[in-house]
Write a structure and sequence with these properties.
The protein is an alpha+beta fold. Helices cover about 30% and strands about 25% of the residues.
């Protein structure tokens, strides 16, 4: 299995501002969104896996669009979580889709993919 990038912060605390400018990659990718309590720290918990043909555009759409993930990100911010992302660069969108399916099969505990929040 390929290695993902290191976790990169998207939002922090009560602000719903996705800083996609920290993400320079504009190609196909499989990405994982994670959350961590801002005040207590600890490990980042993976909550969503997705695929895209353009990582930058997809993450931007989570911040400004009406997507469920945007809603979840905003809700986590209000509850005091920091939202993180890491990703696997791929050559094609199809390769990203295959990896997403593998991750969902292997680690099925992605609560946002299961249409519900764990808290």
């Amino acid at each position: 299995m390929p290695r993902p990038t290191k976790w990169q912060k998207l939002t922090e605390g009560k602000e719903h501002f996705i800083d996609v400018d920290t993400i320079k990659y504009r190609g196909p990718a499989c990405y994982v969104i994670g959350i961590r309590r801002t005040s207590t720290g600890g490990k980042i918990r993976s909550v969503y896996v997705g695929k895209t043909g353009d990582l930058y555009e997809r993450l931007h759409s989570h911040g400004v669009g009406n997507k469920n993930t945007g809603y979840y990100i905003e809700r986590c911010n209000r509850r005091g979580y920091t939202v993180w992302v890491r990703y696997f660069k791929k050559k094609t969108a199809f390769q990203a889709e295959v990896l997403e399916a593998q991750l969902l099969r292997r680690w099925w505990n992605y609560p946002w993919n299961a249409l519900g929040m764990p808290f």
